[in-house]
Amino acid sequence: xxxxxxxxxxxxxxxxxxxxxxxFLGFLLVVFVCITLGNMFYKQAEDFSGLIxxxxxxxxxxxxxxxxxxxxxxTLIAFFFGVPLAYFLARKEFIGKSIIESIVDVPLxxxxxxxxxxxxxxxxRSGVIGAPFEKVGIAFIDAFPGIVIAMLxxxxxxLVDAAREGFKEVDPxxxxxxxxxxxxxxxxxxxxxxxxxxxxxxxxxxxCWARGISEFAAVMxxxxxxxxxxxxxxxxxxxxxxSGLPGIAGSRPISVLLISICLVIFILLxxxxxxxxx
Length: 278
Hints:
This protein is mainly alpha-helical. The chain is built from 14 helices and 2 strands. Helix 7 packs across helix 9, helix 10 packs antiparallel against helix 11 and helix 11 runs antiparallel to helix 14. The protein is globular.
């Protein structure tokens, strides 16, 4: 026993127990996701022709294109307005800060169908925001801008929270040194603070985009037309089930196609992020 206790491998194993436990527990979540999605891909592989038909269906491709485009637009809006807010929250202490942070996170906790109803009341043609835009010819109800707004509402907290934590990790002393050397506040932000926090901001943007493209309930309430991918999948499931009918793609092949496209985009974005870190 004494000999075994002196073996370096045993001591290393003792030190690594927490990592082994973490790997085991976390791996269960990975398995859960793989089984859930893998089963859908496996079932669809048995009807590969259905997937090919969905990939050629212009209605399906248009819906996926609308979802991707709307998610990109909502992410850009969240970036433009959310990054300055995150920087302010990370650097300033003020009365009511916790209230502002709670308001930012509210979309994460309310049911998304409730978010859709709330958005509908504001962006209808006679709504507080919808009416002024209506005068300049911009409609939100059953229109592409409505999809963008719905995605923005449910996804922007991911970007703001990630950016705020990224800015907090940047040492303020670096900013102070730059300012003492004559750099303006804006130049200090663009040349030091933003680049150092960019990894966190980029991660938040990826999550923001992903959450937006997956939204269903809020989009269904405010803009079921033009059909985004999530709306089309819901309609096909209700009308034609998983596999569909001859000449009509069901919900499962469209889902597999959407997941595949998003997975490729997700991997490319993560690889780009990894290269930037190096």
